[in-house]
Amino acid sequence: GENVEQHPSTLSVQEGDSAVIKCTYSDSASNYFPWYKQELGKGPQLIIDIRSNVGEKKDQRIAVTLNKTAKHFSLHITETQPEDSAVYFCAASASNTGFQKLVFGTGTRLLVSP
Amino acid sequence: EPEVTQTPSHQVTQMGQEVILRCVPISNHLYFYWYRQILGQKVEFLVSFYNNEISEKSEIFDDQFSVERPDGSNFTLKIRSTKLEDSAMYFCASKAATDTQYFGPGTRLTVL
What we know:
Radius of gyration of chain B: 13 Å
Largest sheet of chain B: 7 strands, mixed
Strand content of chain B: over 45%
Number of strands of chain A: 11
Structural class of chain A: mainly beta
Shape of chain B: globular
Mean pLDDT of chain B: 94
Strand content of chain A: over 45%
Mean pLDDT of chain A: 93
Radius of gyration of chain A: 14 Å
Largest sheet of chain A: 6 strands, mixed
Oligomer: heterodimer
Largest interface: A-B, 25 and 24 residues
Shape of chain A: globular
Helix content of chain B: under 10%
Low-confidence stretches of chain B: none
Structural class of chain B: mainly beta
Helix content of chain A: under 10%
Number of helices of chain B: 0
């Protein structure tokens, strides 16, 4: 089955810096890659996603890149702010059937210091 | 904005007791999921549900677990005889025909 690795496990940056979180996946059938942000005591919230027919997607300060050949995808946050501090999870799924389950990475705790 | 809701937010139970965790998915969604997250670990898939039946389940989802959509709005997860290792956050998620799954705020289950 699918296995998703995520690095780093913790990331500390200064406000205004960029942050990059990287994930690799194992199943070449995976074609949908969402990123979730989880704040303390809350459920995961989708922040951006990308499908395998696209190499990059941007939404304001957040971007995701996908390299299908290497089976890795990355989350880029620019101009970080203290409210970006949270745990970020990448996930992968093969969405052809419609039912698709998400396989999550182990999470990255991002700390943005003022 | 529509959202997935879950009750209770925290459930404490004794080992061996039955618990039912409740979820109200987003109203026009067709696919429903339960995931769990043991403290400090990643989110793990338990089960997916579509058209009133289980479409896929993980190894974690053994005979002690069951899901039901008893009416048009609720989606429940039942654990028949809880174990200490069932202590975790349980998240319900739902989606429409597109890929995006929306998660609820979770139920923290503590088994004593």
